[in-house]
C-alpha cells in the first residue's frame, strides 16, 4: 500500500537470499557468521518445536513471514488477523503447544487482540506476536506508521505481555512467552517485537548462545495425598454423585485415565460442550440427556477442568435446585483445577484438588486402587432415575429428528449431520451460531476427545473459519463446520484461505436468513429491514465456488446428506448452503433469558 517505507520499517542487514538457512527438524544452522533479529526469532521458535505460524503479513513483519517459510515453518496466511488469532488459539488447545499468531502493528495487532483475549478467557495457550513501532516514537507520541503503545493495550487482556528491544534478548522473550502460555492455567500471551529489532545484527555465536530451549514448559502439578483423600471421601459417601467434565479436561489429554475414573466409580457424568467426546456421548454413564434432572438432584458434584461460570449457572440458583436465582442448591463440590484461585469463585468448594488434571486423576485412581474393597457403586435408585429421564428424552428427540418438514428445520438438517459425524468419528466439528450452536451441541454426538470446537466461554461469533483452518492444518483430519448464517458472516472471507491451502473443510450454513431467525420486519414499515435479518435467499455457496471450491445449495435432508458425503469423500473445500425455515429458531437460542427485555417480562 505504501510507496515509501516508513522510518520504522528498517531494512534488514541481509537480503532474503543471504538469510542463513536453518536445518530442518527444529535444528538451527551453526555455520552463519552473523545473526539478525529475523533469524533469531525464527531460530528461537524452531528450537522450541514451533512449526506453524498463523498470521497476516505487512510492515514490519512481511520479511519475517517469508523467512519463516523459507526456514521450513508452515506459514498460514489469513485475510483478517482475528481469524488467524482464533486459528492460533485453537491450535494451542488441540496440541498443548502455544499457537502463534503473527500480525503487523496497531490495526493488525488490534484485530488479533480479540482472539488473544478470547484465548485467555478460554484458557487456550496462544502467543500473539506483533510488529510494533519504536519506543522513542511511541513514548513521545511523535507519530509513526501504525504507531500505538501495543504492550500497554495488550496487558490487561493477556496472561502475560513482553517486549523485546535487543536481539540478544529474543531467546529470553520467546522462552518466557512460551512458559507463560502453557504453564499453570494456559492463556494468551503478547510478544511485542519493534521493527528495529529485526535488522539488528549480532555475532552468530552470541546469538546462538542467547537462545533458550524451554525445559519442561508445563510442569506437572501433583496434588498432595491428603487433598486427594479428602475429595475421594466426599465422593465415596455421596448418595447422588455427579461428575462434570470441562474443556480443561479435554485439553489435559489424560483421556484414558479420565475414562477409567468415570468407569471405575460408575458415577454419571455431564460433558461441557468442548468436553463432548472425551468419553463417547453414547456412553451409558453420560447424563447429558438428563441434565436438568441431575444438576438439582446431585448431592456431590466433582467438577474436572470446568469453571462454575455462567455456563453452569454459577453452581447455584434454580438450575441447581436453589429456591431463587442466587440461592445455593445444597450440593457439595469437589473441583479439580490447575488454578489455585478457581475454588470458591461462586460457591463453596468443599474439596478443591489443585493440580494438573493428568496428575490429579491418576492420583485419584491410584488412591482408589490402593483402598481395600471395591468402590461403592452409586445407588440403583439414582442411576435408574437418570436412566428413566434419559430414555424419555432420547425417545422424544428421536421423534423430532424423524420428522421431515419442508422447508428443513434445525432438527431435520442436524439429523443428517449427526449420522455423518457418527460415520466419521475422526472428523473435527466446528460449531457457532445461537440456535445452530445449541441444537448441534445437543443433537450431534461426539465419539472422540477434542473433536468439538466451539464458541467457548464467551459465546463468541467469528471463530468458525479460523478454527476450521487450524483444525485441518494441525490434524490433517476432515473438518465439518456447522454455522449459523450470521455466525459464518464474521469470518466467511476465509473461504479463500481454505481454498488456497486446499483444506478438507466442509462448511454447512444453517441458513434461516438472519440472526436467530429471518422473519422479523421493521415495525415502522420503513425502508430499512429489521436489524436482525439478511438478504433473503442468499447464495452463500457461491462464495466457495468463487475461489475454486465446491458450493452446494441444499433444500432437503437428502441433498444435504449427499453433499456432505461427497465433501468427505473428495476432501475438497466445500460450502453447503442448507436452507432452513426462516421461522425456525428462538431469540438468543437457549440463552433468551439473558436478554434484558426478556428479564423484564413477568
Ligand atoms: P468449560 O467451558 O468446558 O466449562 P472452562 O473453560 O470454564 O471449561 O474451565 C476450564 C478449566 O480447566 C479452567 O479453570 C482451567 O484452569 C482448567 N485447566 C485447564 N487446563 C488444565 C490442566 N491441564 N489441568 C488442570 N486444570 C486445567
Ligand atoms: N458478536 C459477537 C462477536 N459474538 C456474539 N455472540 C454476538 C455478536 C451476538 N450473537 C450471538 O450471541 S449469536 C449471534 C450473534 C450475532 C448470531 C445468531 O445467528 P446465527 O445462528 O444465524 O449465527 P441461528 O442459528 O440463526 O441462531
Task: Tell me what portion of residues adopts beta-strand conformation.
Answer: 15-25%
Task: Tell the overall outline.
Answer: globular
List the strand order in the largest sheet: 3-2-4-5-7-6
Percent in helix: 25-40%
Mean pLDDT: 94
Distance between the termini: 56 Å
Assigned CATH class of the largest domain: Alpha Beta
Q: Output the structural class.
A: alpha/beta
The count of helical stretches stands at 22
Bound molecules: adenosine-5'-diphosphate, ligand TZD
**CATH fold descriptor of the largest domain:** Rossmann fold
Largest sheet: 6 strands, parallel
- What Rg, in angstroms, do the CA atoms define? 25 Å
**Please, how many domains?**
3
Q: Give the CATH H-level superfamily of the largest domain.
A: Thiamin diphosphate (ThDP)-binding fold, Pyr/PP domains
Give the oligomeric state of the chains in this entry, treating copies of one chain as homo and distinct chains as hetero: single chain
Count the strands?
19
CATH architecture call of the largest domain? 3-Layer(aba) Sandwich
Q: Runs with pLDDT <50, length 5+?
A: 1-25
Amino acid at each position: 500500500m505504501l510507496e515509501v517505507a516508513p522510518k520504522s520499517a528498517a531494512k534488514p542487514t541481509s537480503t532474503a537470499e543471504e538469510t542463513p538457512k536453518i536445518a530442518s527438524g527444529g535444528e538451527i544452522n551453526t555455520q552463519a557468521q552473523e545473526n539478525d533479529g529475523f533469524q533469531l526469532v525464527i531460530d528461537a521458535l524452531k528450537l522450541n518445536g514451533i512449526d506453524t505460524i498463523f498470521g497476516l503479513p505487512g510492515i514490519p513483519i512481511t520479511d519475517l513471514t517469508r523467512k519463516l517459510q523459507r526456514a521450513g515453518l508452515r506459514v498460514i496466511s489469513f485475510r483478517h488477523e482475528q481469524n488467524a488469532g482464533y486459528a492460533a488459539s485453537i491450535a494451542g488447545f488441540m496440541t498443548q503447544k502455544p499457537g502463534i499468531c503473527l500480525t503487523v502493528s496497531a490495526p493488525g495487532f488490534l484485530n488479533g487482540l480479540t482472539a488473544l483475549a478470547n484465548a485467555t478467557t478460554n484458557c487456550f495457550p496462544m502467543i500473539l506476536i506483533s510488529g510494533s513501532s519504536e519506543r522513542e516514537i511511541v513514548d513521545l507520541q511523535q507519530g509513526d506508521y501504525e504507531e500505538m503503545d501495543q504492550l500497554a493495550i495488550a496487558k490487561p487482556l493477556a496472561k502475560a505481555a513482553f517486549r523485546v528491544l535487543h536481539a540478544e534478548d529474543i531467546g529470553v522473550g520467546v522462552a518466557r512467552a512460551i512458559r507463560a502460555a502453557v504453564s499453570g492455567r494456559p492463556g494468551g500471551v503478547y510478544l511485542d517485537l519493534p521493527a528495529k529489532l529485526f535488522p539488528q545484527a549480532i555475532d552468530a555465536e552470541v546469538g546462538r548462545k542467547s537462545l533458550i530451549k524451554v525445559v519442561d514448559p508445563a510442569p506437572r502439578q501433583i496434588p498432595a495425598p491428603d487433598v486427594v483423600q479428602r475429595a475421594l471421601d466426599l465422593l465415596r459417601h455421596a448418595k447422588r454423585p455427579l461428575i462434570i467434565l470441562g474443556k480443561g479436561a479435554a485439553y489435559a489429554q489424560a483421556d484414558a485415565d479420565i475414562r477409567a475414573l468415570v468407569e471405575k466409580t460408575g458415577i454419571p457424568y455431564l460433558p461441557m460442550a468442548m468436553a463432548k467426546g472425551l468419553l463417547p456421548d453414547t456412553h451409558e454413564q453420560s447424563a447429558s440427556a438428563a441434565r436438568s434432572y441431575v444438576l438439582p438432584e446431585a448431592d456431590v458434584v466433582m467438577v474436572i477442568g470446568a469453571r462454575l461460570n455462567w455456563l453452569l449457572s454459577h453452581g447455584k440458583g434454580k438450575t441447581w435446585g436453589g429456591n431463587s436465582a442466587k440461592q445455593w442448591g445444597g450440593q457439595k463440590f469437589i473441583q479439580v483445577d490447575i488454578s489455585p484461585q478457581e475454588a470458591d469463585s461462586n460457591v463453596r468448594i468443599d474439596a478443591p484438588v489443585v493440580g494438573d488434571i493428568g496428575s490429579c486423576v491418576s492420583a485419584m485412581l491410584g488412591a482408589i486402587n490402593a483402598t481395600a474393597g471395591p468402590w461403592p457403586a452409586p445407588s440403583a435408585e439414582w442411576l435408574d432415575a437418570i436412566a428413566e429421564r434419559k430414555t424419555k428424552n432420547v425417545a422424544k428427540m428421536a421423534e423430532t429428528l424423524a420428522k421431515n418438514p419442508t422447508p428443513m428445520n434445525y432438527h431435520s438438517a442436524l439429523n443428517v449431520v449427526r449420522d455423518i459425524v457418527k460415520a466419521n468419528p475422526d472428523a473435527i466439528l466446528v460449531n457457532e451460531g445461537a440456535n445452530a450452536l445449541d441444537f448441534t451441541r445437543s443433537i450431534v454426538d461426539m465419539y472422540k476427545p477434542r473433536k468439538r470446537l466451539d464458541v467457548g466461554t464467551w459465546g463468541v461469533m467469528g471463530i468458525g473459519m479460523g478454527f476450521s483452518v487450524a483444525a485441518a492444518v494441525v490434524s490433517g483430519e476432515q473438518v465439518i463446520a456447522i454455522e449459523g448464517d450470521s455466525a459464518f458472516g464474521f469470518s466467511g472471507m476465509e473461504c479463500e484461505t481454505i481454498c488456497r491451502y486446499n483444506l478438507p473443510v466442509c462448511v454447512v450454513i444453517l441458513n434461516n436468513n438472519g440472526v436467530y431467525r429471518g422473519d422479523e420486519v421493521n415495525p415502522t414499515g420503513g425502508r430499512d429491514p429489521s436489524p436482525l435479518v439478511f438478504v433473503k435467499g442468499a447464495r452463500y455457496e457461491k462464495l466457495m465456488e468463487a475461489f475454486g471450491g465446491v458450493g452446494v445449495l441444499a433444500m432437503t435432508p437428502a441433498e444435504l446428506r449427499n453433499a456432505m458425503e461427497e465433501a468427505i469423500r473428495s476432501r475438497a473445500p466445500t460450502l453447503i448452503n442448507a436452507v432452513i425455515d426462516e421461522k425456525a429458531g428462538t431469540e438468543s437460542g437457549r440463552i433468551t433469558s439473558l436478554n434484558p427485555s426478556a428479564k423484564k417480562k413477568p
